[in-house]
Amino acid sequence: MKIIDIKATPVAVPLKPSMTKSKMRKGPNVVLAVIVQVYTDDGYVGIGETPAVLGLDISTAIVNSTKALLIGEDPRNINLLIKKLYVRYNLTHLHIHLANWAFSGIELALWDIAAQSANMPLYQLWGGAFRKKIEMQGTIERQELSGMTEVASQMVKAGYKTLYTKIGMDPEDDVAAVAAIRKGASSRDVKIRVDANQAWSTGVAINTINKMEQYGIEWVEQPVIMYNIDALLDVKNSVNVPILGHEANWTMYDLINVIKSNAVDYVKLDGRFDAGYTGVRISAGMAEAAGIQCSHHSFYTLGIALAGSLHVIASCPNFSMANSMSEYAGMIDDVITDGPMRMKEVPYMEVPETPGIGVTIDKERLAKYNEFYVKEIFEKGFERETEMPYYTSMYMRTYFKDILN
């Protein structure tokens, strides 16, 4: 079996209107992604999805530029091919995380081909499933406090057992937001998670987390800058609320240092952030060896990447906590056949069972949302201006408060 072509298609798929307001947010509320299709001489077509962190123009160009290196290769030599891309693009001199923004869609497409050719769902190729129903958290956007209370109440009534929101802009407002969520989800059986995205100094983190403790927090995600693991450990040792690492353990190469430092209680992982889907499964294994439970991350995801994540969660034993599908719950449509993947029973997503990653591309939808991207994003200059402001600035939030709010 040989690769005969690779196609990269940038798309913009609309989301429901956002409740979070920011001077930084411009253009339509969309999920941006590059849809990757890898074709083989045996007739298989593998599909993947690359996120838009660097901009779709850059990601599309990188995916297209791999043709010279991948055409003629056996698509099942996945680990070798991805490592060769890292080396040939000189990305061993940069952070592997940067490389994987573009390469993750290619790798998922290769895994799709491998599982299709083996006539089994991807999770079986990866050794079988520990779970077929994947619990998801309910994400609550930052908005007026009354709105957060109402959304929390609605989500609990719908069946969600875990609620999540972004924090890290203003400590007093953050504590008030958590209190508002707990007001709408009064039962302590409902877990609350908060994500600071590295925004706090050590002292501010400790002080703020201690104020939040009364509301019953399952964990605080990445309270301090990712580069200072000692600070992360200081926070962990100074509060009663568990600490989850994310940016500090983006890749398996980072995670080893977080584990050795005993700096976190839990970790959040994602194949599009790690050293690929192979890397995220290695990271999960390392965390398992350290006795650490995992939750899966999500970031502006369409159904192709979500399907890949479900197979990761299913096949790794210690993805034993509720996971994120983030903005996907607000998708109006998708590029996959039959539109967005939906829950049959809240809060669970089911792992696709057909060979490969278990979803297929709807050609008409793909063309429609490629055209939408070109006309409404690229031509209007919104290529890098549609991201969630609570995520974008991370540890620089305090420097940009005036323009973020």
UniProtKB/TrEMBL annotation:
<dbReference type="InterPro" id="IPR029017">
    <property type="entry name" value="Enolase-like_N"/>
</dbReference>
<keyword id="KW-0456">Lyase</keyword>
<dbReference type="InterPro" id="IPR034593">
    <property type="entry name" value="DgoD-like"/>
</dbReference>
<dbReference type="InterPro" id="IPR013342">
    <property type="entry name" value="Mandelate_racemase_C"/>
</dbReference>
<protein>
    <submittedName>
        <fullName>Mandelate racemase/muconate lactonizing enzyme family protein</fullName>
    </submittedName>
</protein>
<dbReference type="GO" id="GO:0009063">
    <property type="term" value="P:amino acid catabolic process"/>
</dbReference>
<dbReference type="GO" id="GO:0046872">
    <property type="term" value="F:metal ion binding"/>
</dbReference>
<dbReference type="InterPro" id="IPR018110">
    <property type="entry name" value="Mandel_Rmase/mucon_lact_enz_CS"/>
</dbReference>
<dbReference type="Pfam" id="PF02746">
    <property type="entry name" value="MR_MLE_N"/>
</dbReference>
<dbReference type="GO" id="GO:0016829">
    <property type="term" value="F:lyase activity"/>
</dbReference>
<dbReference type="InterPro" id="IPR013341">
    <property type="entry name" value="Mandelate_racemase_N_dom"/>
</dbReference>
<keyword id="KW-0479">Metal-binding</keyword>
<feature type="domain" description="Mandelate racemase/muconate lactonizing enzyme C-terminal">
    <location>
        <begin position="145"/>
        <end position="242"/>
    </location>
</feature>
<dbReference type="Pfam" id="PF13378">
    <property type="entry name" value="MR_MLE_C"/>
</dbReference>
<dbReference type="InterPro" id="IPR029065">
    <property type="entry name" value="Enolase_C-like"/>
</dbReference>
<dbReference type="InterPro" id="IPR036849">
    <property type="entry name" value="Enolase-like_C_sf"/>
</dbReference>
